[in-house]
Amino acid sequence: MDIRGYIERAVRELGAEVPFVELEVPRVAEHGDLSTPVAMVLAGRLRRPPREIAEEMASMLRAESPFERVDVAGPGFINFTFRRGFLYEGLRNLLGDPARCLRRDLGGGQKVQVEFVSANPTGPLHLGHGRGAAVGAALSNLLARAGYEVEREFYINDAGRQVRLLGESIFARYKELLGVACRFPEEGYRGGYVVEIARQLLGEAGDRFRDAGFEGEAAEYFVRFGVGRMLGVMKEDLGGFGVEFDRWQSEKALYDEGLVRRCLDELREKGMLYEREGALWFRATEFGDDKDRVVIKSDGSHTYFASDIAYHWYKIQRGFDELIDVWGADHHGYVPRIKAVIRALGHPEERLSVLLVQIVTLLRGGKPVQMSKRSGEFVTLREVTEEVGADTTKFIFLTRSHDSHLEFDIETAKKESSENPVYYVQYAYARINSIFRKARQQGVEPGGAVDLGCLKEEAEAGLIKKLLFYPLMFEGAVRAREPHRVTFYLQELAGLFHPYYNTHRVLGLDPSLTLARLALCEAVKRVLEEGLSILGVTLPERM
RNA sequence: GCGCCUGUAGCUCAGCAGGACAGAGCAACUGACUUCUAAUCAGUGGGUCGGGGGUUCGAAUCCUCCCAGGCGCGCCA
Fold first, then answer.
1. CA end-to-end span of chain A, whole Å?
2. Which of A116, A255, A273, A451 has the most CB atoms in a 10 Å sphere around its CB?
3. Is residue A49 part of a domain?
């Protein structure tokens, strides 16, 4: 359906132009199936009364085939009511080629990289990482269905102080296991997993580091071993959560392969670095940041920012048209400086967008769960996945806008499991499958020459319209980079299907009616599949 | 002190590029399982959209001030 096209044509015939024809599904049935306020937008531009414009457009649009009625109402809304035949045609198209009907090429093959999670490999993933994972993965899926070529990347902070501290913590535990006295590093990681890694290391390396200090080869070994293990754990946890990446970029590799050096050289040549007080600074203030930033400290070591500059430089070199960084909102202060980098490198800052995912407050039975990474007391993503389930957890994350603070109560998420929204949607899918199983048992073969005209019920028209409006939601979600809109749509669709299921039978009716209803069920199933797969939520054949 | 995010029903949250009478789920209360799965359905009640100004034909949405909560403001990562 291209209702928007008809309206745009009418706008052009008025000799006007509008950046975007807004379409909305009216809340009230009397306002038709679809509505546009475009005449009111045009009123200002054309200096004419909105209702007059609306009337003129309506009379043009009435000639178009999809519409049963085109009415002007209120201050200048144009309300459309579809012909049944238009709905049937749309349903038929949807069944004929679901992917073509449900996906839209909005990206035109542009290359987009979505970087998300990127947690320090110094401890297990916590629930906040899970939110980033759910959002990043869903956004990637969404864009991939919108004609973007998407790469999902995890950036590994395996250089610098934090991983060194991890190695040192493992080192201390290793010595303890060998019964050798060793001071535990002041800011070391005290979680039990560190002891576990030390035990594994002992199994592999034996006691050959018994008398070593934490330096040179020993330090390197402990760090590499620890990072390797932590990465393994994180990959496992993400796998258990149902999130996969296309690529893992090591920060250390950026140094080892000389990318940091080359990038800094380039900035230096452009005059964007300067020395002061023994350190090397980036002129961030010239690109909108409020302070200049150190890239090489006076002790000669690089800041985290140095490799981050190189990382983004490298991303752009790899040919991405757009970069999306999904960050925890606690890093928001970092946005201006990384945007400054993009501009300093000679690119429009829109090339990078940073999606800030707000903090998750973890509750158990209404009480906040204290978390501290240092002490090692925190609830991990793995624990929540096991206790609550990946589908429920993802669905909760994706039922909120990414920038809204989120309270996640483990008890509630579990307790409500039987009435959890995710099951509501999945159950609709399972019920449809059940119908098809039953149909096969009865020897009813779906498909073939179906007379969709048998679908005369209001509930059926409502369902078909909802299906045909999927692209409207989809385009909005892509444009706004908001996967949670998909979640809400799916709940609404399931909310139409369940009552329909309860009041209308599918099987055992007049054969042509049964076939038509099976076709409708098939279409609902396809859309549920499409939507849930964007969210990364599984599709149960039965429940 | 400065900056960013948030404030909508008892609770958790939507509200799509400013549009028509503000929505959903949960919780509460009434009802519906010999019929394709009751993880469902039908119904009832529930709101000064934090507050004040402003822009507009029209504001939960944009601007501004104030209040409340969260998060940031390192030669840490």
1. 34
2. A116
3. yes
CA dihedral A190, A193, A198, A202 (to 10 degrees): 160
Those residues with Cβ within 8 angstroms of residue A529's Cβ, 6 or more apart along the chain or in another chain: A429, A539
Domain with A457, as residue range(s), is 420-535
Q: Which nucleotide is nearest, taking the CA of residue A298 and each C1'?
A: B75
Q: Nucleotides on strand B with an atom closer than 7 A to protein CB? A: 3-7, 12-27, 35-37, 39-42, 57-58, 69-77
Which nucleotide lies nearest residue A278, CA to C1'?
B75
Size of chain A, expressed as the number of residues it contains: 543
Residue A67 sits in a domain whose CATH number is: 3.30.1360.70
Tens of pLDDT, residue by residue, chain A (543 residues) = 488 999 999 999 988 888 889 999 998 888 999 999 999 989 888 888 899 999 999 999 999 889 999 999 988 999 999 999 999 999 999 999 999 999 999 999 999 999 999 999 999 999 999 999 999 999 999 999 999 999 999 999 999 889 999 999 999 999 999 999 889 998 899 889 999 999 999 999 999 999 999 999 999 999 999 999 999 999 999 999 999 999 999 999 999 999 999 999 999 999 999 999 999 999 999 998 989 999 999 999 999 999 999 999 999 999 999 999 999 999 999 999 999 999 999 999 889 999 999 989 888 877 778 766 555 567 889 999 999 999 999 999 999 999 898 889 888 888 777 778 999 999 999 999 999 999 999 988 887 889 999 999 999 999 999 999 999 999 999 999 999 999 999 999 999 999 999 999 999 999 999 999 999 999 999 999 999 999 999 999 998
CATH number for position A458: 1.10.730.10
Handedness of CA A172, A176, A180, A186 (dihedral sign): positive
Angle at A486 between CA A482 and CA A487, to 5 degrees: 105
Query: Does A184 map to a domain?
Result: no
List pLDDT tens digits, range A460-509: 999 999 999 999 999 999 999 999 999 999 999 999 999 999 999 999 99
Q: How far apart are CA A227 and CA A201, in angstroms?
A: 12
Split into its structural domains, chain A has a count of 2
ipTM value: 0.95
Establish if A12 belongs to a structural domain: yes
Residue A22 gets which letter from DSSP? -
| Joined tokens for residue A415 | 């307790």
CA dihedral A340, A342, A348, A352 (to 10 degrees): -100
Listed residues A33, A67, A82: the one ending a domain:
A82
CA of A359 to C1' of B72 (A): 12
- Å between A62 CA and B23 C1'? 31
* Last residue of one domain, picked from the residues A18, A49, A82: A82
- For A443, what's the count of Cα atoms within 13 Å in the CB-facing half-sphere? 0
